[in-house]
Design a protein that fits this description.
- The chain has 251 residues and is α/β, with parallel strands linked by helices.
- It contains 10 helices and 10 strands.
- The protein folds into 2 domains: 165 residues, P-loop containing nucleotide triphosphate hydrolases (Rossmann fold, 3-Layer(aba) Sandwich), CATH 3.40.50; 75 residues, no CATH class.
- The strands form 2 sheets. The chain has a 6-stranded mixed β-sheet with strand order 6-7-8-3-9-10, with helices on both faces. A 4-stranded antiparallel β-sheet has the order 2-1-4-5, with helices on one face.
- The chain binds adenosine-5'-diphosphate and magnesium ion.
- Adenosine-5'-diphosphate binds next to strand 2 and helix 1.
Protein backbone atom coordinates (compact mmCIF):
# COMPACT_ATOMS: atom_id res chain seq x y z
CA UNK A 1 0.00 0.00 0.00
CA UNK A 2 1.18 3.52 -0.77
CA UNK A 3 2.26 5.42 2.33
CA UNK A 4 -0.07 8.22 3.36
CA UNK A 5 1.30 11.75 3.05
CA UNK A 6 -0.62 12.71 6.20
CA UNK A 7 -1.20 10.35 9.08
CA UNK A 8 -3.15 11.59 12.09
CA UNK A 9 -2.98 9.32 15.11
CA UNK A 10 -5.20 9.51 18.14
CA UNK A 11 -5.70 13.27 18.40
CA UNK A 12 -7.58 14.30 21.50
CA UNK A 13 -8.39 17.86 22.51
CA UNK A 14 -10.61 19.24 25.27
CA UNK A 15 -11.75 22.79 25.93
CA UNK A 16 -12.62 22.68 29.62
CA UNK A 17 -15.33 20.02 29.87
CA UNK A 18 -15.92 19.87 26.13
CA UNK A 19 -14.08 17.14 24.24
CA UNK A 20 -13.72 18.67 20.76
CA UNK A 21 -11.56 15.83 19.39
CA UNK A 22 -11.89 12.29 20.73
CA UNK A 23 -9.06 10.01 19.74
CA UNK A 24 -9.21 10.94 16.05
CA UNK A 25 -7.17 8.97 13.53
CA UNK A 26 -7.28 9.48 9.79
CA UNK A 27 -4.94 9.64 6.84
CA UNK A 28 -4.55 11.23 3.43
CA UNK A 29 -3.02 9.34 0.52
CA UNK A 30 -1.42 10.59 -2.68
CA UNK A 31 -3.90 11.63 -5.38
CA UNK A 32 -7.02 11.59 -3.23
CA UNK A 33 -9.56 13.98 -1.82
CA UNK A 34 -10.57 12.88 1.67
CA UNK A 35 -13.62 14.83 2.78
CA UNK A 36 -14.36 15.49 6.43
CA UNK A 37 -18.01 16.25 7.05
CA UNK A 38 -20.11 16.79 10.15
CA UNK A 39 -22.62 19.20 11.67
CA UNK A 40 -21.66 22.64 12.96
CA UNK A 41 -19.65 22.40 16.14
CA UNK A 42 -18.59 18.80 15.45
CA UNK A 43 -14.92 19.76 15.73
CA UNK A 44 -13.83 19.95 12.09
CA UNK A 45 -11.97 23.26 12.29
CA UNK A 46 -10.46 22.26 15.63
CA UNK A 47 -9.07 19.12 14.01
CA UNK A 48 -7.58 21.03 11.07
CA UNK A 49 -5.93 23.50 13.45
CA UNK A 50 -4.26 20.65 15.32
CA UNK A 51 -3.05 19.09 12.07
CA UNK A 52 -1.70 22.44 10.84
CA UNK A 53 0.01 23.17 14.16
CA UNK A 54 -2.01 26.18 15.36
CA UNK A 55 -3.53 24.28 18.25
CA UNK A 56 -1.72 21.77 20.42
CA UNK A 57 -3.55 18.49 21.00
CA UNK A 58 -3.77 17.03 24.51
CA UNK A 59 -2.85 13.65 23.09
CA UNK A 60 -1.89 12.07 19.79
CA UNK A 61 0.47 12.86 16.96
CA UNK A 62 0.60 14.07 13.38
CA UNK A 63 2.90 12.47 10.83
CA UNK A 64 3.53 14.33 7.60
CA UNK A 65 5.55 12.94 4.70
CA UNK A 66 6.93 10.25 7.00
CA UNK A 67 7.99 12.63 9.74
CA UNK A 68 6.47 13.24 13.18
CA UNK A 69 5.64 16.95 12.94
CA UNK A 70 3.83 17.09 16.30
CA UNK A 71 6.46 19.32 17.94
CA UNK A 72 6.69 21.68 14.93
CA UNK A 73 5.15 25.12 14.48
CA UNK A 74 2.61 26.02 11.81
CA UNK A 75 5.34 27.75 9.78
CA UNK A 76 7.64 24.72 9.90
CA UNK A 77 4.81 22.42 8.84
CA UNK A 78 4.01 24.80 5.95
CA UNK A 79 7.65 24.72 4.87
CA UNK A 80 7.54 20.92 4.84
CA UNK A 81 4.67 21.16 2.36
CA UNK A 82 1.45 21.38 4.37
CA UNK A 83 -0.66 23.77 2.32
CA UNK A 84 -3.73 25.34 3.81
CA UNK A 85 -6.75 27.46 2.99
CA UNK A 86 -8.98 28.92 5.67
CA UNK A 87 -12.68 29.01 6.55
CA UNK A 88 -12.36 32.79 6.53
CA UNK A 89 -10.32 34.12 3.63
CA UNK A 90 -6.80 35.17 4.58
CA UNK A 91 -5.86 37.29 1.56
CA UNK A 92 -5.56 41.08 1.92
CA UNK A 93 -8.32 42.88 0.03
CA UNK A 94 -6.38 46.09 -0.61
CA UNK A 95 -3.47 44.38 -2.34
CA UNK A 96 -3.38 43.24 -5.92
CA UNK A 97 -3.67 39.59 -6.82
CA UNK A 98 0.03 39.47 -7.65
CA UNK A 99 1.05 41.27 -4.44
CA UNK A 100 -0.90 38.80 -2.33
CA UNK A 101 0.76 35.90 -4.11
CA UNK A 102 4.23 37.36 -3.73
CA UNK A 103 3.57 37.90 -0.04
CA UNK A 104 2.56 34.26 0.16
CA UNK A 105 5.76 33.21 -1.59
CA UNK A 106 7.69 35.32 0.88
CA UNK A 107 5.93 33.54 3.71
CA UNK A 108 5.29 36.78 5.56
CA UNK A 109 2.31 39.00 6.15
CA UNK A 110 1.76 42.64 7.05
CA UNK A 111 5.07 44.09 5.96
CA UNK A 112 5.40 47.84 5.55
CA UNK A 113 4.79 49.16 2.08
CA UNK A 114 8.36 50.41 1.68
CA UNK A 115 9.65 46.90 2.25
CA UNK A 116 6.91 45.64 0.01
CA UNK A 117 8.12 47.71 -2.96
CA UNK A 118 11.51 46.09 -2.70
CA UNK A 119 9.98 42.62 -2.50
CA UNK A 120 7.98 43.27 -5.67
CA UNK A 121 11.26 43.63 -7.57
CA UNK A 122 12.59 40.26 -6.46
CA UNK A 123 12.52 38.33 -9.73
CA UNK A 124 12.65 34.89 -8.16
CA UNK A 125 9.69 35.60 -5.88
CA UNK A 126 7.82 37.14 -8.79
CA UNK A 127 8.43 34.10 -10.97
CA UNK A 128 7.17 31.79 -8.21
CA UNK A 129 4.08 33.93 -7.75
CA UNK A 130 3.32 34.21 -11.46
CA UNK A 131 3.69 30.48 -11.86
CA UNK A 132 1.24 29.84 -9.01
CA UNK A 133 -1.27 32.29 -10.53
CA UNK A 134 -1.00 30.54 -13.84
CA UNK A 135 -1.67 27.18 -12.22
CA UNK A 136 -4.96 28.41 -10.72
CA UNK A 137 -5.92 30.34 -13.87
CA UNK A 138 -5.67 33.83 -12.38
CA UNK A 139 -2.75 35.07 -14.46
CA UNK A 140 -4.84 37.58 -16.37
CA UNK A 141 -6.14 39.04 -13.09
CA UNK A 142 -2.69 39.63 -11.63
CA UNK A 143 -3.03 43.44 -11.55
CA UNK A 144 -6.60 43.40 -10.18
CA UNK A 145 -7.22 44.53 -6.64
CA UNK A 146 -8.14 41.48 -4.60
CA UNK A 147 -11.37 43.19 -3.52
CA UNK A 148 -12.45 43.23 -7.19
CA UNK A 149 -12.28 39.45 -7.51
CA UNK A 150 -15.34 37.25 -7.13
CA UNK A 151 -15.58 35.01 -4.04
CA UNK A 152 -14.58 32.03 -6.14
CA UNK A 153 -11.56 33.80 -7.57
CA UNK A 154 -10.46 34.76 -4.05
CA UNK A 155 -10.61 31.09 -3.12
CA UNK A 156 -8.42 30.34 -6.12
CA UNK A 157 -6.07 33.09 -5.07
CA UNK A 158 -5.77 31.46 -1.64
CA UNK A 159 -4.83 28.24 -3.35
CA UNK A 160 -2.26 30.14 -5.45
CA UNK A 161 -0.78 31.61 -2.27
CA UNK A 162 -0.57 28.12 -0.80
CA UNK A 163 0.93 26.76 -4.04
CA UNK A 164 3.91 29.11 -3.77
CA UNK A 165 5.18 26.90 -0.94
CA UNK A 166 4.95 23.85 -3.21
CA UNK A 167 2.60 21.92 -0.93
CA UNK A 168 2.64 18.16 -0.82
CA UNK A 169 -0.92 18.19 0.55
CA UNK A 170 -3.72 20.64 1.23
CA UNK A 171 -5.92 21.21 4.26
CA UNK A 172 -9.02 23.14 3.20
CA UNK A 173 -11.67 24.42 5.56
CA UNK A 174 -14.96 25.03 3.74
CA UNK A 175 -13.60 26.42 0.46
CA UNK A 176 -17.11 26.55 -1.07
CA UNK A 177 -18.46 28.81 1.70
CA UNK A 178 -20.04 31.93 0.25
CA UNK A 179 -19.82 30.78 -3.36
CA UNK A 180 -22.86 30.77 -5.61
CA UNK A 181 -23.77 27.81 -7.79
CA UNK A 182 -21.45 28.83 -10.61
CA UNK A 183 -18.53 29.63 -8.32
CA UNK A 184 -18.94 26.28 -6.57
CA UNK A 185 -19.11 24.49 -9.88
CA UNK A 186 -15.85 26.06 -11.04
CA UNK A 187 -14.06 25.43 -7.78
CA UNK A 188 -15.19 21.80 -7.86
CA UNK A 189 -13.57 21.45 -11.29
CA UNK A 190 -10.45 23.11 -10.03
CA UNK A 191 -10.11 20.96 -6.89
CA UNK A 192 -10.83 17.87 -8.95
CA UNK A 193 -7.67 18.54 -10.98
CA UNK A 194 -5.65 19.80 -8.01
CA UNK A 195 -5.76 16.45 -6.21
CA UNK A 196 -3.23 15.06 -8.69
CA UNK A 197 -0.72 17.74 -7.71
CA UNK A 198 -1.42 17.49 -4.00
CA UNK A 199 -4.05 15.44 -2.16
CA UNK A 200 -6.66 17.38 -0.20
CA UNK A 201 -8.18 16.95 3.24
CA UNK A 202 -11.41 18.79 2.54
CA UNK A 203 -13.84 20.09 5.12
CA UNK A 204 -17.01 20.97 3.29
CA UNK A 205 -20.68 21.58 4.02
CA UNK A 206 -21.74 21.50 0.40
CA UNK A 207 -22.76 17.87 0.06
CA UNK A 208 -22.98 18.03 -3.74
CA UNK A 209 -19.34 19.08 -3.78
CA UNK A 210 -18.39 16.36 -1.30
CA UNK A 211 -20.21 13.61 -3.17
CA UNK A 212 -18.74 14.79 -6.48
CA UNK A 213 -15.16 15.14 -5.31
CA UNK A 214 -14.42 12.78 -2.46
CA UNK A 215 -12.54 9.53 -2.85
CA UNK A 216 -13.22 8.91 0.82
CA UNK A 217 -15.43 10.55 3.41
CA UNK A 218 -15.04 10.63 7.18
CA UNK A 219 -17.93 11.78 9.32
CA UNK A 220 -17.27 13.70 12.51
CA UNK A 221 -20.00 14.06 15.14
CA UNK A 222 -19.37 15.50 18.61
CA UNK A 223 -15.62 15.20 18.19
CA UNK A 224 -15.71 11.57 17.09
CA UNK A 225 -15.35 9.93 13.70
CA UNK A 226 -18.50 7.81 13.48
CA UNK A 227 -17.91 6.50 9.96
CA UNK A 228 -15.32 6.51 7.22
CA UNK A 229 -15.62 5.09 3.73
CA UNK A 230 -16.41 5.61 0.06
CA UNK A 231 -19.15 7.98 -1.09
CA UNK A 232 -21.54 5.06 -1.57
CA UNK A 233 -20.76 3.57 1.83
CA UNK A 234 -21.31 6.90 3.57
CA UNK A 235 -24.53 7.63 1.69
CA UNK A 236 -25.88 4.24 2.71
CA UNK A 237 -24.70 4.33 6.33
CA UNK A 238 -27.76 4.55 8.63
CA UNK A 239 -25.81 6.17 11.50
CA UNK A 240 -24.60 8.89 9.16
CA UNK A 241 -28.04 9.44 7.75
CA UNK A 242 -29.58 9.98 11.14
CA UNK A 243 -26.67 11.93 12.63
CA UNK A 244 -25.93 14.15 9.72
CA UNK A 245 -27.52 13.70 6.33
CA UNK A 246 -31.01 13.62 7.80
CA UNK A 247 -30.31 16.84 9.61
CA UNK A 248 -29.01 18.42 6.40
CA UNK A 249 -32.16 17.62 4.47
CA UNK A 250 -34.44 19.53 6.85
CA UNK A 251 -32.28 22.68 6.81
P1 LIG B 1 -16.79 22.85 13.36
O1 LIG B 1 -15.64 23.43 12.59
O2 LIG B 1 -17.03 21.40 13.10
O3 LIG B 1 -18.06 23.64 13.18
P2 LIG B 1 -15.25 23.65 15.69
O4 LIG B 1 -14.03 22.83 15.57
O5 LIG B 1 -15.15 25.07 15.28
O6 LIG B 1 -16.45 22.94 14.93
O7 LIG B 1 -15.75 23.60 17.18
C1 LIG B 1 -15.93 22.37 17.89
C2 LIG B 1 -16.37 22.66 19.31
O8 LIG B 1 -15.28 23.20 20.03
C3 LIG B 1 -17.49 23.70 19.39
O9 LIG B 1 -18.35 23.32 20.45
C4 LIG B 1 -16.76 24.98 19.71
O10 LIG B 1 -17.59 25.87 20.41
C5 LIG B 1 -15.60 24.47 20.56
N1 LIG B 1 -14.39 25.31 20.46
C6 LIG B 1 -13.67 25.52 19.34
N2 LIG B 1 -12.59 26.29 19.60
C7 LIG B 1 -12.64 26.58 20.92
C8 LIG B 1 -11.81 27.33 21.82
N3 LIG B 1 -10.70 27.92 21.39
N4 LIG B 1 -12.18 27.41 23.10
C9 LIG B 1 -13.30 26.78 23.55
N5 LIG B 1 -14.11 26.06 22.77
C10 LIG B 1 -13.80 25.95 21.48
MG1 LIG C 1 -15.51 25.04 11.21
Amino acid sequence: MIDPILDVRGLTKSFGGLVASKNISLDLRPGEIHALIGPNGAGKSTLIKQIAGGLRPDEGSVFFDGQDVSPLSTASRARLGMGRTFQISSVAMEYTVLQNTVLGALGHRGNTFRFFNRVMKDTELLATAENALEQVGLQEFRTFRTSDLSHGQRRQLEVAVALTLEPKAFLMDEPMAGLGAEGSHRLIGFLDALRQKAPILLIEHDMDAVFTLADRISVLVYGEIIASGSVDEIRANPDVRSAYLGEESVE
